């Protein structure tokens, strides 16, 4: 039984983060959509040219131009301004599926974003190690954008 549990554990990924933002739900949700979409950039500032179609069934993809790009996921659920859920392979080009969930709540004049990334599949160790750092970068950009709005 230990071998089965260990094998399943090696195929799963769970990242949970809480981000506190000194801005309204509406401003924070708008900043999230902008940062995941057209304003998305890598940690070095390189634009990612992402598109996020913010409706049920909408695509999240990276546009490389000339009908080239990478499909990252599909909007599974959206309830503006409190929920965004996306499922898909994200940036991973191997057998894997992810579920991203952003839940936004107002607490004491702040917006609290509860983020969960759950994935199942063949996730290389180097991607596993860099995921938290990548999400931290994106979430910090969302926080700054919302607080500046």
Essential attributes:
149 residues, alpha+beta, Alpha-D-Glucose-1,6-Bisphosphate, Chain A, domain 4, 7-stranded antiparallel beta sheet, 3 helices, 7 strands, globular
What's the structural blueprint in terms of helices and strands?
Layout (H helix, E strand, L loop, with lengths): L1 H10 E10 L3 H12 L13 E3 L6 E7 L2 E12 L3 E6 L7 E12 L2 E12 L3 H24 L1
Helix pairs in contact: 2-3
Describe this protein's structure:
The chain has 149 residues and is α+β, with helices and mostly antiparallel strands. The chain has one domain (2-148): START domain (Alpha-D-Glucose-1,6-Bisphosphate, Chain A, domain 4, 2-Layer Sandwich). Helices cover 31% and strands 42% of the residues. Strands 1-7-6-5-4-3-2 form a seven-stranded antiparallel sheet. A hairpin with a 7-residue loop joins strand 5 (83-88) and strand 6 (96-107). It is globular. The mean pLDDT is 92.
């Amino acid at each position: 039984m230990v071998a089965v549990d260990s094998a399943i554990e090696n195929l799963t990924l769970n990242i949970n983060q809480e981000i506190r933002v000194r801005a309204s739900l509406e401003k924070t949700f708008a900043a999230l959509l902008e940062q995941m979409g057209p304003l998305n950039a890598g940690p070095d500032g390189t634009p990612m040219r992402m598109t996020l179609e913010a409706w049920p069934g909408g695509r999240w993809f990276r546009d490389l131009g000339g009908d080239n790009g990478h499909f990252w996921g599909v909007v599974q659920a959206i309830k503006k301004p409190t929920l965004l859920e996306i499922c898909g392979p994200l940036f991973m080009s191997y057998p894997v599926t992810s579920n991203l969930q952003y839940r936004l709540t107002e607490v004491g004049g702040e917006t609290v974003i509860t983020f969960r990334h759950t994935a199942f599949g063949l996730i290389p160790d180097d991607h596993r190690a860099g995921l938290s750092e990548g999400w931290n970068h994106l979430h910090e950009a969302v926080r700054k954008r919302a607080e500046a709005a």
